[in-house]
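sorry for the late reply, my laptop died twice this morning and i had to redo everyting from scratch. anyway the thing you sent over, i finally got around to it. pasting the sequence first so we're on the same page, its 145 residues, then the predicted structure underneath. double check i copied it right bc i was rushing
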Amino acid sequence: MSSLRAGAARRDPSLGPLEISAAVSVGPGDDPVAVADALRPGVALYVGGMGSRETNFYNQLAVRYGYGNEARTLQDLYLAGRREEAAAAVPAQWIQGMTIAGDRGRMIDRVAAYRAAGVTVIDIRPYGNLVEVVAGLREVVDATD
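ok and here's the structure:
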């Protein structure tokens, strides 16, 4: 958050309000384990396999999020070709913290958390059944407006 404040302070005010966008995997579901399992391979790919060991933005971001040991493990496994093990090593808590997923109440809480963090635009990355995702989001939007 301090980086955003520092950048905003240097920003030309004539540009208007700063929009802060977050790309977020979104999907309704009552089973948090199923939600986590559906997203593990993608997180493992990004954190473990995007870029080189020295220049992986997503790995470095994971470290800044406080998941340094986990990010290193994912990268070691992924770069060794052990992709399924890398996916299994992604902590469920990590996935829960970076998604808007779960039952209606949890999704509402996650939208509130993104808003509290200063996010003004949520770039939705739906997973699962698109009709169910849209219906779940409609409920969340109605409840949070």
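The mean pLDDT is 88.
thats about all i looked at so far, will dig more tmrw
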